[in-house]
Design goal:
The chain is an alpha+beta fold. It has two domains: 186 residues, Acetylcholine Binding Protein, Chain: A (Distorted Sandwich), CATH 2.70.170; 122 residues, Methane Monooxygenase Hydroxylase, Chain G, domain 1, CATH 1.20.58. Helix content is 28%, strand content 31%. Strands 1, 2, 3, 5, 6, 8 and 9 form a seven-stranded mixed beta sheet that branches. A four-stranded antiparallel beta sheet has the order 4-7-11-10, with no helix packed on it. Helix 3 packs antiparallel against helix 4. The chain is rod-shaped. The N terminus is likely disordered.
């Protein structure tokens, strides 16, 4: 996909003397596959479209650069007509004219190349640059949601039949980075540095081990939206039932209305914000806070029922004492549970 190219040769620059048609087929591997060609990669991101946790994917656009040396393209000094242009001499090729490393994005969902260039200098160094838009799959760890940091990965691997023909350079090209322009900014995410690694990886039992070059981009979620739009309103709804502990235990009807109303309000609130939450099969920090809020309101209903039955059976003084203690037990318990969840999920 990125550099999957078949391999014919366009005439070089006018600064090169006309030479007989070469007997070497430039569409074949430079060393005939005897030794691997080292390929250096560079990734420059110019547009961040979206990060989709529910589909476990992200979409970006930018420039992918590949650079390697083809000894067959080295120009002898005597072949250059104009020495003044020797240092800047480049030749342009088409993809079908020249051998190019067959590599692909292992985690690609879709990929579109809009434009490309393929040039070689007098020393045989070939540089391929393409402008691309791609959608990639990615694993997200959302247990800390919405206070999480994710790592977006661009996994580049050689195609199966050419795995032994190339190796990835240990360092990226200088063109690697993220554009500071506004198109790389997302309202919900803070974009950090782009890192690069190249190593040998083991795949599943049907595929042999292979080399892999990985570009990793760390992104941190901006949690302000969730803090002010979800956590604060949820905490307020959860703490409203505290007022029942100032109402006489005989007022069962009024006592029960408050936590029941808040419980229904929280259910409606959760349904409203569901579309803004990731759909994962495990409990996130926000899920745990919601469950704790539901549980506190539910326990408040049990307490109201218990003290009402106690005073109906002649245990009014005990019922009033238990009910009065709820003035501080309820909010302290809620605060303690939230701190415990934060320590469990966020550390």
């Amino acid at each position: 996909m990125f550099l999957i190219m078949a391999p014919i040769s366009i005439p070089a620059s006018s600064a090169v003397k006309t030479a007989p048609k070469p007997s070497v087929d430039l569409r074949k591997h430079p060393t005939g596959g005897k030794t691997p060609i080292e390929v250096s990669l560079g990734l420059y991101i110019t547009n961040f479209v979206a990060i989709d946790e529910s589909r476990e994917s992200f979409e970006v656009g930018g420039y992918l650069t590949g650079r390697w040396q083809d000894p067959r393209l080295v120009l002898p000094p005597g072949q250059i007509a104009d020495k003044a242009t020797a240092q800047t001499l480049t030749r342009t090729f088409r993809l079908e004219d020249l051998w190019t490393p067959a590599i692909e994005a292992a985690n690609s969902i879709s990929h579109k190349t809009t434009q490309y260039s393929l040039i070689a200098d007098r020393d045989g160094f070939v540089t391929y640059i393409e402008r691309f838009d791609t959608v990639l799959s990615n694993d997200y760890d959302l247990k800390r949601f919405p206070f999480d940091t994710q790592v977006l990965q661009f996994e580049v691997q050689p195609f199966l039949s050419t795995a032994s023909e190339i190796r990835f350079a240990p360092q990226p090209l200088q063109s690697t980075g993220v554009s500071p322009e506004q198109h790389t900014q997302l309202a919900a995410w803070e974009i950090n540095d782009l890192r690069y690694t190249a190593e040998k990886v083991a795949r599943d039992r049907f595929l042999p081990p292979t080399q892999e070059a990985v570009f990793q981009l760390a992104v941190k979620r901006r949690s302000g939206f969730y803090l002010w739009k979800i956590f604060v309103p949820l905490a307020m709804m959860t703490l409203v039932p505290v007022v029942v502990f100032w109402i006489d235990v005989e007022q069962f009807d009024w006592l029960l209305k408050v936590p029941m109303t808040m419980l229904l309000s929280m259910v409606a609130f959760e349904f409203t914000i569901t579309r803004d939450l990731p759909r994962v099969g495990y409990v996130t920090f926000l899920d745990a806070v919601f469950l704790a809020s539901f549980a506190l309101c539910f326990l408040c209903i049990f307490e109201i029922t218990a003290v009402y039955l106690m005073q109906k059976r002649g245990m009014r003084s005990t019922a009033e004492k238990v009910h009065s203690n709820g003035k501080w037990i309820y909010p302290v318990t809620y605060l303690g549970v939230i701190l415990l969840l934060a320590a469990t999920f966020l550390t």
